[in-house]
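User: My instructor asked us to take a sequence, write out its structure as tokens, and then describe one feature of it. I'm not sure where to start. Here is the sequence I was given:
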Amino acid sequence: MNKTIIEPEKTERLRQLADVLQMEIRGQHHIIPRVVSVLQRGELGLSKAGRPRGSFLFLGPTGVGKTELTQVFTGKLFGMEKLVRYDMSEFQTQESLGLLLGSRPGEKGFLGAAYERTKTGTLLFDEVEKAHPRIMDVFLQMLDAARVTIATGETLDLSGFYIVMTSNIGSAELMTLQHSAESTLERHVLSRAQQSLRPEIFARITEKLVFHRLSYEHQLEIAAKFLEKEISFLTGRGCNIRVSESVLSFVVRKGFHPKLGARPMRDAAEKLVGDAVAVALLLNGCADGCLTADPANDRLKIE
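Assistant: Let's start with the prediction itself. The structure tokens for your sequence are:
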């Protein structure tokens, strides 16, 4: 029996994975250990033969970190070029099966083209509940045997991939149950997902995880993360900027949306800080000073 040898760099990367994900994904601490468990087993070769390395169903409202988490762990394990993403709202008709697998002999389809580029990584299917039932048949093949046959006649071996499905199933009801305990909300969302997805698909997914709504404190943490990245970028460009206490809550107010969650936060931070720096450069020739909120003019400014 051959002894499995793990490269030291890979071992260290897997050891650090939980800390990296906790740092990048805010407000979802209950999810990270379960995700890391699947990823570590997958990377250490402990997944079942003939299955994907691991599979996830990420449930919850828009803008709480479902796609962000997928991007972060894929980037850490493989590099972002190994993330293949499909918006399933574009695959709602029976004809869309041809887009995925090829519609005529010789065509590779989107999945075959992606497989030609990389044999390992993450396949991300956003809003999976919108996919046509024929597409669901393909998901069953992926989860059950990690094999899919495309129009060229080639059978793709997807055992080198993680499969992530995201869904907003049950999110509308979360607004009416927002004062309930998180455990109650999780049971409700999982129950709805089990009813909406085919039982045989639901049962084959390694981890079904419900993302929590973001509290105001977590919104502040996310805004702080994006502000820090923006200030760091500008420091590298020669700007010396301090940030006043008024900035964080202002960015949250501009960047958090009740329906979109924290999704607009990065763009808000980049635009607000960038506009303040641009004005300072045009007026003074430099952008050194204290970044502060200017609510009267609905902007940030550098003093």
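For the description part of your assignment, you could build on this observation: The mean pLDDT is 90. Try explaining in your own words what that tells you about the chain.
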